[in-house]
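User: Study the shape:
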Amino acid sequence: MAAKSDAPTSEGYISHHLTHWQVGEGFWTFNLDTILFSTVLGVAFLFFFRRAALAATTDKPSGLLSFVELLINFVDNAVRESFPGKSKLVAPLALTIFVWVLLWNIMDIIPVDLFPTIFYAAGVEYLKIVPSADMSATFALSLGVFFLILFYSVAGKGVGGFAKEFLTHPFGVWLLPFNIILNVVELLAKPLSLALRLFGNLYAGELIFILIALFTLGSSLSELLTSVGGWASIAGHMALQFAWAVFHLLVIPLQAFIFMTLTIVYLGMAYESHDEH
């Protein structure tokens, strides 16, 4: 990230922080920062969970092992309550989604100028470190859920059962066009709601952190420390950052939980037949 002297205006500062590190053009534009941090967080997740699995023991389990067991039991109970069938995939999928999205969201707590400044020193001008504040990441994750909804619709009802329900529910065979329209809208609304909800909440949180950082924009450290107004700016900045960070700590796990829970519910709805009700 450029130094604050290089971004003297509020508009420039906000625009700079909301611009991705990108390569390519048009449809084939890749947000390298989202790919990088998503991959690093995913590898970290796998590393620590594998480490906990290898260290599993009945004698005085470590703090990491206890934490992992707590998460697994939490997710397993959520799957048992919301998914009607038996599947070896749903629980691991739900656990992966919850932990990965949680790690994505936690990146929003890191000071907004820290990583951009480090990467700027290495020649990277723009950087966004919160994958869940990137619509391409949330849509990619929800797209995977969308294909699983189709898979479990066929797995639970069969090809014929899925086609029959898609064409005849809820109004019967005589209103087939209306059934198709409603079912297509319902099918597409599920991944859209997942992606937009997560993106909207984390993007808004990131933007508020950036706006709070504007309190000291354009002022040197010496100016801030040698005037009453400078000390007031520092105090206001720290108080607002702390207050928003505390509130955001509630949003971070909540959004991961909502994404996971809705994924389980949508897969359960896809697996069940409406004829069973």
User: Anything to note?
Assistant: The CA atoms of residues 1 and 116 lie 4 Å apart.
